[in-house]
Amino acid sequence: MLTKTSLKFLEEFMNSSSPSGFEEEAAACFRNYLAPCCDEVKTDVLGNTMAVLNPGAPMRVMLAGHYDEIGFQIVYISDEGLLYFRPNGGIDKLNVPSTEVDILTASGRVRGVIGKKPIHLLKPAEREVPPELSDMWIDIGAENRAEAEKIVSVGDPVAVRSNFRMLNEHRFMSKGTDDKVGAFVVAETMRELAKRKLNVAVYGVGTVQEEVGLRGAHTSTFGVDPQVGFAIDVGFATDLPDIPKKLLGEIRLGGGPELNRSCDNNPVLGRMLRRIAKEKKIAYQETAAHRASGGTDAAQIQMTRAGVATALLSIPTRYMHSPVEICDLRDVECPVKLLGETVAAFRGDEPCSAGID
């Protein structure tokens, strides 16, 4: 079970704002949480944070979850004091109008709301078509450009306003669970592993810029040079109307993490995960993923240097890439236990060149 300390960190972490390329808040939160229990914690030039346990061991295992989130960036300030923006990451324009946002300025957060032309003033044909991002703007209440330019600047990053809350005993809602929930699993696993005797070096990494091309995973994996890498990201919960289970499988909130079988997943490592899950009676769900390869840090970790034995664990998530993503704490607790037991089971002399068997 997650402790009160863990849940407090979860809320603080989710409420941090970290659009891709501007992850300082999340990095500081992640770093401060793990510093007391790890042998070393450092943040590299890109903003990836690496917490290390047992650093002298020759075999290195990497756990990775990205803490960047989708957002926007200001590109123009109009005479009316309105802020026009570009997307930063995979934005669903259907979710954008009326979103509350924070502009992350050098002097602090500035609140705003994304506006568009009212429905009353749209032509009938326009009402049937989602507005383009270029037809929306951020309103911070400024009367004109001069007033706006006193508090915001072109280039300032924009995040969806922090909105974490528990919905009931198990389920919570927040912007940016993709993928702070995965980075949270990494942090909790590191805290659990800090209590155990390890035969391997463990690097718990919060990665950056995943939403714009898996960039942080590439550089951090090159630096760590692991033999084994686990990526923890979100996956589609299909326990909703009109989601095609025949294409995505049957995945429900509260059923445990998704264990993937795709080109990004080393089959020997996958068998090890499933064996330990069954031995320890840890719930998990099977998925073949919706594509053969790519889309998460696992793909980048696997292809770094001469190759890494990788596995992807996905946390079921509803309403991905929206301001109201929903996850279940039970799907967080299970991968923490599974990863902890798996890493603790490594002897440190596995023949990784053959796939860790």
General description of the model:
The protein has 357 residues and is of the alpha+beta class. The chain is 26% helix and 25% strand. It is built from nine helices and 17 strands. The chain has helices at 4-15, 24-34, 145-149, 177-193, 215-224, 245-248, 267-279, 297-302, 330-345, and strands spanning 40-43, 49-53, 60-66, 71-77, 83-88, 100-105, 108-115, 137-139, 157-160, 165-166, 171-174, 201-207, 228-236, 258-260, 285-287, 309-317, 325-328. Helix 7 links the parallel strand 14 (258-260) and strand 15. Helix 7 (267-279) packs across helix 9. The protein is globular.
Spatial order of strands in the largest sheet: 1-2-12-3-13-16-14-15
Share of helical residues:
25-40%
State the CATH architecture of the largest domain.
3-Layer(aba) Sandwich
**How many domains make up the 3D coordinates?**
2
Distance between the termini: 31 Å
Instruction: Return the structural class.
Output: alpha+beta
Which labels suit this protein?
357 residues; alpha+beta; Elongation Factor Tu (Ef-tu), domain 3; 2 domains; 8-stranded mixed β-sheet; 6-stranded antiparallel β-sheet; 9 helices; 17 strands
